[in-house]
Design goal:
The chain has 87 residues and is mainly α. The protein has a domain at 28-86. It is 85% helix and 0% strand. The chain is built from 3 helices and no strands. Helix 1 packs antiparallel against helix 2 (44-63). The chain is elongated, with a radius of gyration of 17 Å. This is Small ribosomal subunit protein bS20.
Length: 87
């Protein structure tokens, strides 16, 4: 355990941010899974609905610095491509 006051604070802040990032990543993964499930079932309407939610969540995560912008773009591109393949 750290002895210096600022180091103790950094540990607390890092834990807080880690928890926040983990929650955001989990939410994104859930949204992505919903899109992939809809695509697997060939349900175009549900896939498009889930895609719009997923894109929103991915962009929010990118804006908060959880994901790099290129990672966000790649995820969105792959999901959109999958949805368009069944439409």
């Amino acid at each position: 355990m750290a002895n210096i006051k600022s180091a103790k604070k950094r540990i607390l802040v890092a834990e807080t941010r880690t928890a926040r990032n983990k929650a955001i990543k989990s939410k994104v993964k859930t949204c992505v899974k919903k899109v992939e499930t809809a695509v697997a079932k060939n349900d175009a309407a549900a896939a498009k609905e889930a895609l719009s939610v997923a894109i929103s969540e991915i962009n929010k995560a990118g804006g908060k610095g959880v994901y790099h912008k290129n990672t966000c773009g790649r995820k969105i591109s792959r999901l959109t491509k999958a949805v368009n393949s069944i439409a």
